[in-house]
C-alpha cells in the first residue's frame, strides 16, 4: 500500500515538504534569449504571467499577475523583488502572493534561475526554494496556518461559525 | 479532499498532526499528550487522520506507530511542481520560437549585405 515516496519520507529525519522544487530543461535558444524571458515584461507575459512590471536589478520590483484557473477570470498577484540579475547566467527573485489563498505570502520564497550554454542551446535550471512548508515550525505559517485556514473554511461552509 | 477537510476540522486532530510531524510516535505516547481525552477517542482520531491520508501508520509488534504523511499535506508543493512543469514547457516553446525568428533575421541580413558588398567589390 505504501508508495516508494512514503518509504523515503519515512526514513526518519525531517519530512521533505520543505525541499526546494528543482526543474531542469533544455531549450534550443541562447542563454541571452532565454534570459529575457525572465526580465522583460513583454517576454515574461508570453509564458508565465498575464501582466508584469519588472525592474530587473537587485531590489527592483518583480510584479506579476497570474490568471486564476478556476474560471473566475480573476488574478493572483505576485509581488516579488529581484535579488540578483546577472545576464545571461542567473536571475534570482522573491516569490509570493498578496492573495492569502495562494499559500505563499510575498517575500516568503525564492526563485533561483540559472542558465548554462549546452550544445545547441541552454540548460535552464529553476530552483524554487524557501517554500512556506519549510517554515512549519512557525505557528503563524506553513502547515499550521494551512490547517487553520482549512478548518475555518470548512466551519464557515458548514455554518458552524457565528 | 473532503476527507482531509473533515479530518483537520477537529482541533485535537490538528494537534496530533503537529505532534508527529517530525517524530514517529506510538499511539500510547500520543494519547498520553491528551490527558482529557480517552484512549479510544484518540484511536478514533488516529483512524480518521490515517484514512484521510494525513498520517502514516506502521506496526511494530503489537504497537502502532504514527507520523504525519508529507504527501497528505503537500498540496501546495504538488501544485507548484505542476505549475512549473506547465510553465517551463510554455517557456521552452516561446523561447525556441523567438530564437528561430532571431536566427532567421540574422541569416537574412548578412546574405543581403554580403551580396551588396560582392557587387560593389
Order of helices and strands of chain B: HHEHHEEH
Strand-pairing-aware structural class of chain A? alpha+beta
Runs of chain B in which pLDDT lies below 50 for 5 or more consecutive residues are 114-121
Give the C-alpha Rg of chain A: 19 Å
Overall pLDDT level of chain B: 81
Task: Give a count of the beta strands of chain B, DSSP E runs of length 2 or more.
Answer: 3
Largest sheet geometry of chain B: 3 strands, antiparallel
Query: What best-fitting shape of chain B do the alpha-carbon axes yield?
Result: rod-shaped
The total count of strands of chain A amounts to 7
C-alpha termini separation of chain A: 41 Å
- Share in β-strands of chain A: 25-35%
Strand order of the largest sheet of chain B: 1-3-2
Helix content percent band of chain B = 55-70%
Contiguous helical run count of chain A: 4
Mean pLDDT of chain A: 77
Q: Rounded to an integer, what's the Rg of chain B over CA atoms?
A: 30 Å
Uncertain parts of chain A:
1-17, 134-144
What string, H for helix and E for strand, traces the elements of chain A in order?
HEHHEEEEEEH
Assembly state (oligomeric) = heterodimer
Q: In one word, what is the shape of chain A?
A: globular
Strand order of the largest sheet of chain A: 1-7-6-5-4-3-2
Question: In words, what does this structure look like?
Answer:
The complex is a heterodimer of chains A (162) and B (121). With 162 residues, chain A is α+β, with helices and mostly antiparallel strands. Chain A contains 4 helices and 7 strands. The N and C termini of chain A lie far apart (41 Å). Chain B has 121 residues and is mostly helical. In chain B, strand 2 (55-60) and strand 3 (63-68) form a beta hairpin. The N and C termini of chain B lie far apart (75 Å). Chain A binds chain B through residues 2-3, 5-6, 9-10, 12-17, 21, 23, 25, 27-30, 33-34, 37, 43, 46-48, 103-104, 121, 124, 126, 128, 131-133, 136, 143-144, 146-148, 150-151, 153-155, 158, and chain B through 4-6, 8-9, 11, 14, 17-18, 21-22, 24, 56, 58, 67-71, 73-74, 76-77, 80-81, 84-85, 87-96, 98-99, 102.
Amino acid at each position: 500500500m505504501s508508495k516508494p515516496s512514503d518509504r523515503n519520507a519515512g526514513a526518519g529525519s525531517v519530512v521533505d515538504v520543505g525541499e526546494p522544487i528543482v526543474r531542469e530543461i533544455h531549450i534550443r535558444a541562447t542563454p541571452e534569449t532565454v534570459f529575457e524571458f525572465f526580465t522583460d515584461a513583454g517576454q515574461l507575459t508570453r509564458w508565465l504571467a498575464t501582466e508584469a512590471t519588472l525592474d530587473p536589478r537587485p531590489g527592483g520590483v518583480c510584479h506579476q499577475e497570474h490568471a486564476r484557473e478556476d474560471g473566475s477570470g480573476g488574478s493572483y498577484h505576485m509581488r516579488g523583488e529581484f535579488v540578483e540579475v546577472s545576464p545571461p547566467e542567473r536571475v534570482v527573485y522573491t516569490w509570493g502572493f498578496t492573495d492569502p489563498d495562494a499559500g505563499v505570502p510575498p517575500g516568503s520564497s525564492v526563485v533561483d534561475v540559472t542558465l548554462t550554454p549546452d550544445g545547441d542551446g541552454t540548460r535552464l535550471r529553476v530552483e524554487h526554494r524557501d517554500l512556506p512548508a519549510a517554515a512549519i515550525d512557525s505557528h503563524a505559517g506553513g502547515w499550521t496556518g494551512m490547517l487553520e485556514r482549512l478548518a475555518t473554511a470548512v466551519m464557515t461552509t458548514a455554518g458552524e461559525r457565528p | 479532499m473532503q476527507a482531509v477537510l473533515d479530518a483537520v476540522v477537529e482541533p485535537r486532530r490538528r494537534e496530533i498532526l503537529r505532534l508527529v510531524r517530525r517524530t514517529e510516535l506510538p499511539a500510547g505516547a500520543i494519547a498520553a499528550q491528551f490527558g482529557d481525552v480517552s484512549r479510544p477517542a484518540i484511536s478514533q482520531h488516529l483512524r480518521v487522520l490515517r484514512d484521510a491520508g494525513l498520517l502514516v501508520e506502521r506496526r511494530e509488534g503489537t504497537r502502532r506507530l504514527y507520523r504525519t504523511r508529507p504527501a497528505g499535506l503537500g498540496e501546495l508543493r504538488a501544485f507548484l511542481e505542476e505549475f512549473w512543469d506547465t510553465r517551463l514547457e510554455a517557456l521552452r516553446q516561446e523561447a525556441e520560437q523567438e530564437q528561430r525568428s532571431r536566427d532567421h533575421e540574422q541569416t537574412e541580413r548578412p546574405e543581403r549585405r554580403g551580396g551588396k558588398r560582392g557587387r560593389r567589390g
